[in-house]
Design brief:
The protein is of the alpha+beta class. It has one domain. The chain has two helices and two strands, in the order H-H-E-E. It has a two-stranded parallel ribbon. The chain is elongated and about 35 Å long.
Length: 74
């Protein structure tokens, strides 16, 4: 639901209700302009990217610089 409601993510982050989140991709897909800079920073810190299959993801592995964890599905 976060792609269609970025303010929902921002509110959850502000209230400390989100420990992590994902969206079945290697990067967040939502309109960051609706969030404060603090919320954007926390959004990336709590985002868990997901990679699929055995091939390298589109755009390579640069997304790994932004977080601590990654989910995978084969």
């Amino acid at each position: 639901m976060f792609p269609s409601c970025p303010s929902c993510l921002g509110s959850g982050l502000d209230q400390g209700l989100i420990d992590f989140w994902w969206n079945w991709d290697t990067h967040p897909k939502l309109d960051e302009t609706q969030l404060t800079q603090a919320q954007v920073s926390e959004m990336y810190a709590k985002f868990i990217p997901m990679i699929w299959g055995q091939a390298a993801p589109d755009g390579g592995y640069g997304f790994l610089r932004n977080g601590t964890y990654v989910m995978g599905f084969k």
